[in-house]
Amino acid sequence: MITLGVDLGGTNLRAARVAEDGALGAVRRVRLADRSPESVVSTLRTLVDEVLDQDGLTHADVLGLAVGTAGQIHGATGRVVVGPNLGWREVPFAAMLEEALPFRAIVVNDLSAAVWGERVVGAGAGADDVLMIAVGSGVGSGIVSGGHLLDGASGVAGEFGHTKVVPSGRLCGCGEHGCLEAYAGGHNLAARAAERIRELGHEGPLAEYHRAGRLDVEALHAAYLAGDAVAKELLGHAAELLGVASANYVTLLNPARLVLGGGVLLGCPEVARGLRAGIERYTSRSALADLEIALAALGDDAGLIGAGLLAYELLR
Amino acid sequence: MITLGVDLGGTNLRAARVAEDGALGAVRRVRLADRSPESVVSTLRTLVDEVLDQDGLTHADVLGLAVGTAGQIHGATGRVVVGPNLGWREVPFAAMLEEALPFRAIVVNDLSAAVWGERVVGAGAGADDVLMIAVGSGVGSGIVSGGHLLDGASGVAGEFGHTKVVPSGRLCGCGEHGCLEAYAGGHNLAARAAERIRELGHEGPLAEYHRAGRLDVEALHAAYLAGDAVAKELLGHAAELLGVASANYVTLLNPARLVLGGGVLLGCPEVARGLRAGIERYTSRSALADLEIALAALGDDAGLIGAGLLAYELLR
Q1: Which residues of A touch B254 (CB under 8 A)?
Q2: What is the DSSP letter of B61?
Q3: Average pLDDT over chain B, rounded to whole?
């Protein structure tokens, strides 16, 4: 028996056969033309058949399917309470999948899937207490504690990006003020860079990227390396806030392994370095003593692999 | 079969018979004359026999014993890695107890015992995700998530008092700077009050308590009610820092129930009110939506009751 791991984003849907050791078999990806739950179910049905065909398998070979997707998920029922990238609210997605497919289905938060993948066969392998912090376009986390995935009472545990680091500070995309994501998430970093360039009448590498319409995290990092003052200010501030917040997170959860992922941390080594320095400096000595920090090892496949491995864990 | 709950403090040792519904039978308390592990084991042996005698029971009626004590505990082996109030380091306490007594023994952190008690028969009853924040002479917490006690990779999860709220701020008793406990713990509040009185040449209710040698949390609260400016400044600042830190804690763990305990929160309603206001204001909307906040219901017995109930959970 094999499982199917599914990564459901706002733009793409990916499905893969996942072996028990985390190895990926056939992987298929499709761009979502229609994000309605009914359409996604039907697209996924086709994708599943393509994956199975490609590996010469049938429905009877499938133990079950697990979907990782961004948002607030009610784990026990697989209901997507809020799926911001899909515009979903209260979608009984696991039940819809089980109606359309002849095997069991579970739905989890995308970072829960990713941390589970990293924990079993990635940078957290061998540890029962793994915290994954991902800083990409947004800021999030996934928690494994005592060998259990931690999802909280209503499926929104680990919303690291929405902890408040500057009370009453900058407005975040979530509608609240002073969130970590408003200072350290990639979308917000780019938006703040554009603001600062305007405010200061700033000239230099970053302003050139801005004029060329290419003001993203990659541009910020290149400008940082070229000595641009605004890039230094913004990435430095992000790293400082991430450092204290991550240190406090480690103090509270006492993980054995902290896994760092996401485009900002993997693409801007200076930010990752600043975050690590903050952890060294601000984590309680007792929680720091047994902590190992590692970069995420599974890249974009963490969610696919983790979902497939979770299906083995939860459906058997 | 019954269990025995034990509360091992720096000054007193208490043992009680605990029924499966959390009801306490005989309770015995003794002042610790000698804090060496060997002496505590021998004192506890006597105490256990007194408790059993009083209720007409024998060793054969005991399923097991559980001890709650402050510090860093390695849960799987019951080793006290650091017991600050006892001056212990690396004491294999559960093993010593099992050698001296004819039944099994477990050792857990005191706030883990307390949150378990509150979760089963106290203010957290009925919930699988309970966070307990205790602000007394120190600041700490206990976490139940998904029905599991969360203790972290090395037994120091939940060190809420040692999260950093003023990076590089006031020196804490733990040797680090800017810890929440350095601003909101009872010992530190009293010490800061004495400092502020000296710095400002402050006169008023608080200064009178200081001269009388009675500058404690009770005095701070009385002075606050009498309009003392320093008392207002210190309790207000403590409540503000507690509010943001607690809100972030709730955002990360998404508990169904937040239980507030400890002498500062129970004795100074203004601080508890400020903490609640901070939670309302700074917690992510999604984690706040399903949160209930309650005052601790079991008082000083939470640790005793929780330890006894944990023994049922873990030793059967």
Answers
A1: 151-159
A2: G
A3: 96
pLDDT band at B107 (very low <50, low <70, confident <90, very high): very high
Residues B35-87 pLDDT 10s: 999 999 999 999 999 999 999 999 999 999 999 999 999 988 999 999 999 99
Q: What is the ipTM of this complex?
A: 0.96
Q: Residue A99: CB partners within 8 Å, gap ≥ 6?
A: none
Residue A175 contacts B where some CB pair is shorter than 8 Å: yes
Q: 């949150």: which residue's tokens?
A: B115
Round to the nearest angstrom and report the end-to-end CA distance of chain A. 10
Q: Are B115 and B71 in contact (CB under 8 A)?
A: no
Q: Does A128 touch chain B (CB under 8 A)?
A: yes
Q: Which of A167, A176, A247 lies closest to B284 in CB terms?
A: A176
| Nearest chain A residue (CA) to B76 | A146
Kind plus residue range of the DSSP H or E element containing B146? none
**DSSP string of B256-272, one letter each residue:** SEEEEESHHHHH-HHHH
Exposed/middle/buried for A166, CB within 10 Å: 0-12, 13-18, 19+?
A: middle
- The whole-angstrom separation of Cα B244 and Cα B255 is 16
Which of A133, A149, A165, A253 is the best substitution to test chain B (most B C-beta atoms within 10 A)? A253
Q: Distances in Å between the alpha carbon of B144 and those of A5, A307, B128, B147, B309?
A: 29, 25, 7, 6, 14
Instruction: Verify whether the Cβ–Cβ distance B254 to A285 is below 8 Å.
Output: no
Q: Please answer whether residues B197 and B206 qualify as being in contact, where contact means their C-beta atoms are separated by less than 8 angstroms.
A: yes
B42 neighbors B96 (Cβ within 8 angstroms): no
Annotate A16-66 with DSSP letters as a single string: EEE-TTS-EEEEEEEE-S--SHHHHHHHHHHHHHHHHHHTT--GGGEEEEE
- Calculate how close chain B gets to A175, using CA atoms only, in Å: 9
Query: Which among A157, A176, A289 is the nearest to B252, CB-wise?
Result: A157
Beta-carbon count within 10 A of B92 CB: 16
Residue A288 and residue A202: Cα distance in Å, rounded?
Answer: 40
Residue A210 has pLDDT above 90, yes or no: yes
Q: How far apart are CA A180 and CA A159, in angstroms?
A: 10
Residue B35 contacts by C-beta under 8 Å, 6 or more apart in sequence?
A: B10, B86, B87, B88
Q: Give the distance from residue A205's alpha carbon to the nearest chain B alpha carbon, in angstroms.
A: 32
